[in-house]
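Protein modeling request. Please complete all fields; requests missing the sequence field cannot be processed.
Requester role: graduate student
Desired output: 3D structure, C-alpha coordinate encoding
Chains: 1
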Amino acid sequence: MAKTERRESVRASLDKQPHEVASMFDGVAKRYDITNTVISGGQDRYWRWAVRKAVAPRPGERVLDLAAGTGVSTSDLAKTGAWCLAADFSKGMLQAGKHRNVPMVAADATALPFADDSFDAVTISYGLRNISESEQALREMLRVTKPGGRLVVAEFSTPVVPVFKTVYMEYLMKALPQVARAVSSNPDAYVYLAESIRAWPNQRQLAVRITEAGWSSVQWRNLTGGIVALHRGYKL
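Delivered output (236 residues):
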Protein backbone atom coordinates (compact mmCIF):
# COMPACT_ATOMS: atom_id res chain seq x y z
CA MET A 1 0.00 0.00 0.00
CA ALA A 2 1.46 3.34 -1.07
CA LYS A 3 2.13 5.91 1.58
CA THR A 4 0.28 9.19 1.40
CA GLU A 5 2.70 12.10 1.29
CA ARG A 6 2.02 14.69 3.95
CA ARG A 7 3.34 18.21 3.80
CA GLU A 8 4.48 19.54 7.15
CA SER A 9 3.37 23.07 7.95
CA VAL A 10 6.10 25.29 9.34
CA ARG A 11 5.63 28.63 11.05
CA ALA A 12 7.83 30.80 13.20
CA SER A 13 7.06 32.09 16.67
CA LEU A 14 7.28 35.75 17.65
CA ASP A 15 10.72 35.26 19.22
CA LYS A 16 11.84 34.86 15.58
CA GLN A 17 14.49 32.20 15.89
CA PRO A 18 16.48 32.44 12.62
CA HIS A 19 16.24 28.72 11.77
CA GLU A 20 12.46 28.80 12.26
CA VAL A 21 12.02 31.89 10.10
CA ALA A 22 14.24 30.51 7.33
CA SER A 23 12.41 27.17 7.39
CA MET A 24 9.05 28.93 7.28
CA PHE A 25 10.01 30.94 4.21
CA ASP A 26 11.47 27.86 2.55
CA GLY A 27 7.98 26.39 2.97
CA VAL A 28 6.14 29.29 1.32
CA ALA A 29 8.65 29.86 -1.48
CA LYS A 30 6.90 27.89 -4.21
CA ARG A 31 3.76 30.06 -4.26
CA TYR A 32 5.06 33.09 -2.39
CA ASP A 33 4.65 35.71 -5.12
CA ILE A 34 1.12 34.72 -6.16
CA THR A 35 0.05 34.47 -2.52
CA ASN A 36 1.29 38.00 -1.85
CA THR A 37 -0.67 39.34 -4.80
CA VAL A 38 -3.86 37.60 -3.66
CA ILE A 39 -3.74 38.56 0.02
CA SER A 40 -2.82 42.18 -0.77
CA GLY A 41 -5.56 42.56 -3.37
CA GLY A 42 -2.92 43.39 -5.97
CA GLN A 43 -1.46 46.22 -3.89
CA ASP A 44 1.95 44.50 -3.81
CA ARG A 45 2.68 45.81 -7.31
CA TYR A 46 1.94 49.40 -6.25
CA TRP A 47 4.06 48.97 -3.12
CA ARG A 48 7.02 47.73 -5.20
CA TRP A 49 6.66 50.71 -7.51
CA ALA A 50 6.67 53.03 -4.48
CA VAL A 51 9.83 51.36 -3.13
CA ARG A 52 11.59 51.80 -6.46
CA LYS A 53 10.62 55.50 -6.53
CA ALA A 54 11.87 55.95 -2.95
CA VAL A 55 15.18 54.17 -3.57
CA ALA A 56 15.56 56.12 -6.82
CA PRO A 57 18.42 53.96 -8.14
CA ARG A 58 20.49 55.42 -10.94
CA PRO A 59 22.41 53.63 -13.70
CA GLY A 60 25.75 52.42 -12.43
CA GLU A 61 24.79 52.49 -8.76
CA ARG A 62 25.06 49.42 -6.53
CA VAL A 63 21.89 48.52 -4.66
CA LEU A 64 21.48 45.82 -2.02
CA ASP A 65 17.96 44.38 -1.79
CA LEU A 66 17.72 42.54 1.53
CA ALA A 67 15.05 39.96 2.35
CA ALA A 68 14.59 39.86 -1.42
CA GLY A 69 12.86 36.49 -1.43
CA THR A 70 12.44 35.29 -4.99
CA GLY A 71 13.99 38.47 -6.37
CA VAL A 72 10.83 40.03 -7.77
CA SER A 73 11.63 43.33 -6.00
CA THR A 74 15.26 43.18 -7.13
CA SER A 75 14.22 42.72 -10.74
CA ASP A 76 11.98 45.75 -10.43
CA LEU A 77 14.83 47.87 -9.04
CA ALA A 78 17.19 46.66 -11.77
CA LYS A 79 14.92 48.12 -14.47
CA THR A 80 16.55 51.47 -13.69
CA GLY A 81 19.97 50.31 -14.90
CA ALA A 82 21.48 50.04 -11.42
CA TRP A 83 23.37 46.88 -10.42
CA CYS A 84 21.06 45.25 -7.90
CA LEU A 85 21.87 42.29 -5.65
CA ALA A 86 19.19 40.10 -4.09
CA ALA A 87 20.08 38.79 -0.63
CA ASP A 88 17.99 36.51 1.58
CA PHE A 89 18.72 33.94 4.26
CA SER A 90 16.06 31.54 2.93
CA LYS A 91 17.79 29.42 0.32
CA GLY A 92 14.39 28.07 -0.69
CA MET A 93 13.23 31.53 -1.64
CA LEU A 94 16.36 32.21 -3.68
CA GLN A 95 15.98 28.86 -5.40
CA ALA A 96 12.38 29.70 -6.33
CA GLY A 97 13.60 32.91 -7.96
CA LYS A 98 16.63 31.52 -9.76
CA HIS A 99 14.97 32.12 -13.14
CA ARG A 100 15.21 35.88 -12.61
CA ASN A 101 18.12 37.63 -14.26
CA VAL A 102 19.56 39.21 -11.10
CA PRO A 103 22.53 38.17 -8.94
CA MET A 104 21.54 36.42 -5.71
CA VAL A 105 23.33 35.54 -2.50
CA ALA A 106 22.35 33.85 0.75
CA ALA A 107 23.06 36.27 3.60
CA ASP A 108 22.18 36.96 7.22
CA ALA A 109 21.10 40.58 7.64
CA THR A 110 22.68 40.75 11.11
CA ALA A 111 26.13 39.81 9.74
CA LEU A 112 26.29 40.88 6.10
CA PRO A 113 29.11 39.36 4.03
CA PHE A 114 30.04 42.67 2.40
CA ALA A 115 32.79 45.21 2.95
CA ASP A 116 32.16 48.60 4.53
CA ASP A 117 30.80 51.29 2.19
CA SER A 118 29.90 48.82 -0.58
CA PHE A 119 26.48 50.06 -1.74
CA ASP A 120 24.90 53.33 -2.82
CA ALA A 121 21.55 52.21 -1.43
CA VAL A 122 20.15 49.42 0.73
CA THR A 123 16.50 48.46 0.84
CA ILE A 124 14.50 45.85 2.73
CA SER A 125 10.82 45.12 2.11
CA TYR A 126 8.69 43.27 4.67
CA GLY A 127 11.75 41.57 6.10
CA LEU A 128 12.96 43.76 8.96
CA ARG A 129 9.99 42.60 11.02
CA ASN A 130 11.19 38.99 10.71
CA ILE A 131 14.68 39.59 12.10
CA SER A 132 15.06 38.90 15.82
CA GLU A 133 17.87 41.46 16.13
CA SER A 134 16.45 44.17 13.89
CA GLU A 135 18.61 46.92 15.45
CA GLN A 136 21.76 44.95 14.61
CA ALA A 137 20.49 44.46 11.06
CA LEU A 138 19.95 48.22 10.71
CA ARG A 139 23.50 48.85 11.91
CA GLU A 140 24.83 46.32 9.39
CA MET A 141 22.91 48.06 6.62
CA LEU A 142 24.52 51.33 7.70
CA ARG A 143 27.98 49.75 7.68
CA VAL A 144 27.74 48.48 4.09
CA THR A 145 26.26 51.73 2.74
CA LYS A 146 28.54 54.40 1.28
CA PRO A 147 28.64 57.83 2.96
CA GLY A 148 25.79 59.82 1.46
CA GLY A 149 23.94 56.62 0.61
CA ARG A 150 20.36 55.86 1.50
CA LEU A 151 18.16 53.27 3.17
CA VAL A 152 14.55 52.46 2.30
CA VAL A 153 12.50 50.20 4.56
CA ALA A 154 9.08 49.05 3.40
CA GLU A 155 7.18 47.36 6.20
CA PHE A 156 3.66 46.62 7.28
CA SER A 157 2.58 49.27 9.75
CA THR A 158 -0.40 50.81 11.55
CA PRO A 159 -3.37 52.24 9.60
CA VAL A 160 -3.91 55.88 10.52
CA VAL A 161 -7.74 56.01 10.29
CA PRO A 162 -9.31 54.35 13.37
CA VAL A 163 -12.24 52.69 11.59
CA PHE A 164 -10.00 51.42 8.80
CA LYS A 165 -7.53 50.15 11.40
CA THR A 166 -10.26 48.09 13.08
CA VAL A 167 -11.38 46.55 9.78
CA TYR A 168 -7.77 45.84 8.77
CA MET A 169 -6.93 44.12 12.04
CA GLU A 170 -10.02 41.94 11.71
CA TYR A 171 -8.89 40.98 8.20
CA LEU A 172 -5.38 40.17 9.43
CA MET A 173 -6.46 37.84 12.20
CA LYS A 174 -9.49 36.19 10.58
CA ALA A 175 -9.67 36.51 6.79
CA LEU A 176 -5.98 36.49 5.85
CA PRO A 177 -5.24 32.97 7.17
CA GLN A 178 -8.34 31.69 5.37
CA VAL A 179 -7.26 33.24 2.06
CA ALA A 180 -3.74 31.85 2.54
CA ARG A 181 -5.13 28.33 2.96
CA ALA A 182 -6.53 28.57 -0.57
CA VAL A 183 -3.36 29.72 -2.30
CA SER A 184 -0.25 29.27 -0.14
CA SER A 185 2.06 26.26 0.01
CA ASN A 186 2.41 26.87 3.79
CA PRO A 187 -0.72 28.64 5.09
CA ASP A 188 0.30 28.46 8.75
CA ALA A 189 3.07 30.95 7.94
CA TYR A 190 0.41 33.59 7.38
CA VAL A 191 -0.87 33.20 10.92
CA TYR A 192 2.64 34.26 11.98
CA LEU A 193 2.44 37.09 9.43
CA ALA A 194 -0.71 38.47 11.04
CA GLU A 195 0.65 38.15 14.57
CA SER A 196 4.00 39.72 13.71
CA ILE A 197 2.34 42.72 12.06
CA ARG A 198 0.21 43.36 15.12
CA ALA A 199 3.28 43.20 17.37
CA TRP A 200 5.43 45.48 15.18
CA PRO A 201 6.20 49.14 16.10
CA ASN A 202 4.12 51.87 14.50
CA GLN A 203 5.52 54.39 12.03
CA ARG A 204 6.98 56.81 14.58
CA GLN A 205 8.43 54.05 16.76
CA LEU A 206 10.18 52.46 13.78
CA ALA A 207 11.60 55.84 12.75
CA VAL A 208 13.13 56.16 16.21
CA ARG A 209 14.60 52.66 15.95
CA ILE A 210 16.18 53.45 12.57
CA THR A 211 17.60 56.72 13.88
CA GLU A 212 19.06 55.02 16.95
CA ALA A 213 20.87 52.61 14.60
CA GLY A 214 22.79 55.58 13.18
CA TRP A 215 20.73 56.68 10.17
CA SER A 216 20.09 60.39 9.64
CA SER A 217 17.11 62.46 8.43
CA VAL A 218 14.71 59.54 8.86
CA GLN A 219 11.24 60.21 7.49
CA TRP A 220 8.32 58.06 6.42
CA ARG A 221 5.22 58.14 4.30
CA ASN A 222 2.18 55.90 4.42
CA LEU A 223 0.91 53.70 1.62
CA THR A 224 -2.67 52.41 1.41
CA GLY A 225 -3.74 54.29 4.51
CA GLY A 226 -0.81 53.11 6.61
CA ILE A 227 -1.06 49.37 5.90
CA VAL A 228 2.50 49.85 4.64
CA ALA A 229 4.95 52.58 5.60
CA LEU A 230 8.06 53.57 3.66
CA HIS A 231 10.88 54.81 5.89
CA ARG A 232 13.88 56.49 4.32
CA GLY A 233 17.16 57.54 5.91
CA TYR A 234 20.70 58.56 4.94
CA LYS A 235 24.24 57.75 5.99
CA LEU A 236 26.27 60.84 6.77
